[in-house]
What we know:
By secondary structure, the protein is of the alpha/beta class. The protein has 13 helices and 14 strands.
Amino acid sequence: MTILILNWRDIKSPSGGGAEILTQEIAKRWAKSGNTVWQISSKFPQAKSREVIDGVTFIRGGAWWNVHFFACYYYFRYLRNKTDIIIDEVHWFPFFSALYAPKKTVALTCEVANKLFFSLFPYPIAVCWRLVEKMYLFIYRNIPSMVISESTYNDLIREGYNASNIFVLPMGLTVPTKIKYFLKEKDPTLIYVARMNKQKGIFDVIKAFSFVKKKFPKAKLWVVGSGTKEIVKEVLQMCRDLKIQSSVSLFGFVSEEKKFELLSKAHLLISASVQEGWGLTVPEAGLVKTPAVVYNIQGFQDIISNKRDGILVSSTPEALAEGVFLALMDKKLYSNMKQAIYKKAKKYSWDNTTDQALTFIKKQIGV
């Protein structure tokens, strides 16, 4: 079969995240098993217009906001008569391939933005974006859809989707070939692993850490992930204003090996994300026995059982700090969470994700 994936970012994109890892892990396994796999994504600085990675052919064009038009053009110009399946990834909005190739399209919906718009934009603008989202949801309500969490499944049902058309993909984890385990740091150490932006909650994390410092003066915060120059500047200024700059380390983008090393050495993963399709970093940290304290939002709710393998808190910096206090001060709870999240994380497999995704696609598309 020939499979075309439409995703606004790809595995090499500096702005890529968990969705791009998921996409690449599935795509390369499809290619390895004998399928022809293409992916159309937006360009980024120094990106090649055409590149083969892990047997997957990447075509890049446009920016994140107009790659949808480029994808439509490229499909009709070069791939229309060669493609059996189109995987249309939804990040805020789809590529609208359901309008020009409905019989070939399967949606991969990472999340329904909804409340996210109102967290990121002024009310009038948020309402406009939400109306656009409602429009695409109406168009896609009968299109076969794969989702990455029960939360997203429930969101689509509420939007009028047919339950028989939706499949919840089991998730997997990408880890170094030989994962190494390190001793925890001597002093309480928190780690944030995500892009530095408002959506991922970096400013709430900084504020929460300032509260943690008052109870644990030697505590440290490691920030792992890239951000724009403006965001980095704001983060550094906030740390100076709160007088915690000497205890906060910005690592920027790091290799997978370095990421797992830092996760292993830290005591807790911390996140104040506004919304997640599926909280990939939680099981990643779990593989090295680092439990998480996170906001009680969709995506994290699908992974964490509160106070069993992690801690879910209400969405305020104060509550996040209280969750950290609980985890660090209750030694028995902390030990139990370490073991529980480790056992849960070990169950995730990309091979299983790939096989079940292709089974669903073949059944729905009839190829």
